[in-house]
Structure formats: C-alpha cells, structure tokens
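User: quick one, fold this
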Amino acid sequence: MLRYNLEKLGYLVDEAADGQEALLRVAETTPDIVLLDWMLPSLSGIEVCRQIRRRPQTRDLPIIMLTARVEEQDSIRGLNIGADDYITKPFSMEALAARVRALLRRAQPQAVGRTLRFHDIVLDGAEHRVQRNNRPIHLGPTEYRLLEFLMQHPRRVFSREDLLNAVWGADIHVEARTVDVHIRRLRKALNGPDEIDVVRTVRTAGYALDLDAL
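Assistant:
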C-alpha cells in the first residue's frame, strides 16, 4: 500500500524484504531517500541505519524511520543512530508525503553557491561541504541545513520553534526535542579535540552560533 501511494505521487520506489537486502540495494543504487522500518527480519532497521551512516557514500542519505515503537526513548534512539525523522504508526499518507518532500528539499545542494564563514568554520554552499580548520566536517542533511541557518544569523538566539520552522518547515509537525537531538549531532561533528564549542545553549531561550560563554 505504501509503495502504491508513493508511486501515485510520482516516486520511483524500490523495496527490500529484510535488512540485509536493504543494505545491498542501497549499496548497488543509492536512492534519494530511505523509508526504514525498525522491525525487519535478519537485521533491524536500527542496525541498517547505523551501517548506512558508516559508509562515506551514504552517510548523508536522508532516512525516515517508520515504526510501531511509540516510546519516547525509541524515537530518541532512532534519531541518535542517524535517522533524520521518526514517524510512528499509524500515520496518514499526507503526513508522510509532506515529510518526504521536506527532507528531499533540504537534502538538495543550495543553488546560490554562497560561502559562509564563522570563526574557523567554512560552509561552501556550491559544493555542499563544511570545513573547520581545513578539516572536512561530515554532516547529514538536517545538520547541514541547521548549521547553514545558524551561520546565516550568527550570535542570534533562536528558540526550538524558530529552528523547527526554519529547518523543517512550518507545515511539518516535528516535536521540539528533535531539535535537541540534531544540535547534539551537529556539536559532535563540529567539535574536535581542543576546539571551541561554537553552538551555545541559552537556557529557556534556545540556541545560537556564538563564541561567548554562558
């Protein structure tokens, strides 16, 4: 049913019966996006997501987890493993289609080709690459868009709701804690040994790209 509805929307859909087959198909022909169930035969969706993120060729591949696991800790685990979005069953096809469109839109390189700089971080919009101290930084599409937005507005504090609207889109329902998960992933990717944490948490207010300590 899911394949039928996606194909009606104009998507070319491939599917895999288990986790091992999913990894083989992703390796053979990298898709634009992966819809991944948690409970898969042979290899769980969590492990499939982890292995996709380990491969340089697919570390930025957009992933949406579709699962019947509704506990908060499950969604946090899924996002921490590397999923860009987490949708619990049952869900409407309209909601899924909106999230697919939003994630695909964010995953595309920026056409303007603008280069942004903050402290020792350089974001090349044309090449869709980030460096810090001439060291390549590997970010998923959500973390890239989050960093891009913060670099466009350095030192300005944004609430979680501000970031949700700017990065995910006002028409997409994503819980506020999702922002916290992606901020942690952004920090982990950006900050090497002895490097300043440039993402500042402002208690009760939100986040800012700033060198000033709290």
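User: anything notable?
Assistant: DSSP finds eight helices and nine strands in the chain.
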